[in-house]
Design a protein that fits this description.
49% helix; 17 helices; D-Maltodextrin-Binding Protein, domain 2; 417 residues
Length: 417
């Protein structure tokens, strides 16, 4: 199965890479990313503007590969790196994805000396730096932002109209879902065309049923995937699927968010990039949309961090280093993150530039227990993530809990032991 998935990824990457423009030369700096939707693209444009101001001798070139969570972009990157055709820098999730896919195979240069030279090492949250620090003590990419995975987004108008409140517990969640369904409203928007949103939902249910200590134990081998919390999370997912939109398999994550905006659904479990989308369509916080933690996960912060690294063998190393310096800067992070719907990886933001939601996220991040996201590359190797996506999307069809647990145990043995 692992070889089949890799073969498909490489085939797709060859097709897309073959259609991509030639590697940037001279004063151009090629940046591979997957930010093509709503506020994502606008945020990248804002970051590029800061880069041009700080380093006018260079011109950023966005080689964007569409696809939420970067599934297609990662396939392109693997092919380009193996083929000796790296971009000057590229987007990569901090954590397991960075190390298993890029650092361990020898594709990346450390950036520790650069961060020290720029005097910014102490400006970053140390726990986020740990997600990009290798066993050798070197840092291999520069964190640009921090997203929160465990957010339950609400259509505030629908809840107010029906006299309902966002649930705090799993059982309250199903009580609210039932009331909404009886009122003719889709309770939970899901768009799993690209597979990962089902895993995104499932990882948050696991955090709710297992708690942070046992959830984190899955990744150091101290907790097994036949843990009762994993089984309970599958049972909750099974129940929740009875309340999702029937066209979920035809929608991506943004399509699910659109159901919220169009008053067709009440809730969506999605990372806080969804807030960037809501604001891009001129929705007002606390009036049009609201938020809370996924029921059962209060006091926990499931972390996703986008970072940029320095590949080996690039054509414009000076331009790449200039790009990373902008990524590391307060000006760059404060231009990008308020639009993207994320908080900065630095600890010194201009808080007034951030939305009400993001200010609350900054406050929570400072005190909550942190847990790594599976779906977004922080917790586990890419091969495990890809196969778990397959398993969960099969579960959506057959709803076989025992079979699903057995399959998860198998891939855990293949990739995590």
């Amino acid at each position: 199965m692992r070889r089949v998935v890799l073969a498909v990824m490489l085939s797709l990457a060859l097709i897309v890479a073959g259609a991509a423009p030639a590697l940037a030369q001279g004063g151009q700096v090629e940046i591979v990313n997957w930010w093509t939707a709503g506020g994502e693209e606008d945020a990248l444009v804002a970051l590029f503007e800061v880069f041009r101001e700080q380093h006018p001798e260079f011109e950023p070139i966005s080689s964007a590969v569409a696809g939420g969570a970067g599934t297609d972009a990662k396939a392109v990157m693997i092919t380009r790196l193996v083929g000796g055709n790296p971009p000057d820098s590229f987007q990569v999730h901090g954590g397991a994805e960075l190390f298993y896919s890029y650092v361990d195979p020898g594709f990346m240069q450390p950036v520790t000396d650069l961060l020290e030279e720029w005097g910014v090492m102490d400006d970053f949250n140390p726990e986020i730096l740990d997600l990009v620090r290798g066993d050798d003590g070197e840092i291999y990419s520069v964190p640009l932002n921090i997203h929160r995975s465990n957010v339950l987004w609400t259509n505030q108008r629908i809840l107010d109209e029906h006299g309902l409140e966002a649930p705090e517990t799993i059982e309250e969640m199903f009580e609210v879902f039932e009331a909404l369904e009886e009122a003719g409203v889709t309770p939970l928007a899901l768009g799993d065309l690209n597979r990962w949103p089902t895993l995104h939902l499932f990882e948050n249910l696991m955090l709710a049923t297992m708690g942070p200590e046992d959830y984190n134990g899955l990744w150091d081998g101290s907790v097994s995937f036949d843990h009762e919390g994993v089984i309970e999370a599958l049972e909750i997912l099974d129940r929740a699927l009875d309340y999702v939109n029937p066209d979920h398999a035809a929608l991506d994550w943004q399509g699910a968010a659109e159901l919220i905006v169009e008053d067709e659904a009440a809730f969506n479990v999605m990372g806080d990039w969804a807030e960037g989308y809501f604001r891009a369509v001129d929705w007002e916080p606390l009036e049009d949309y609201g938020w809370t933690t996924v029921p059962g996960t209060e006091g926990n912060f499931m972390v996703v961090t986008d970072t940029f690294g320095l590949p080996e063998g690039i054509s414009n190393p000076e331009g790449a280093e200039a790009w990373l310096k902008t990524v590391a800067s307060r000006e760059g992070q404060d231009a990008f993150n308020p639009i993207k719907g994320s908080i900065p990886a630095r600890v010194d933001p201009d808080v007034d530039r951030y939305s009400i939601y993001l200010q609350s996220s900054i406050d929570d991040f400072a005190v909550d227990t942190l847990t790594p996201s599976i779906a977004h590359g922080s917790a586990a190797p890419e091969g495990f993530v890809s196969e778990l996506e397959d398993i969960l999307n099969e579960f959506v069809a057959d709803r076989d809990i025992d079979h699903t647990v057995n399959r998860i145990m198998t891939i855990a043995g293949d990739y995590l032991e």
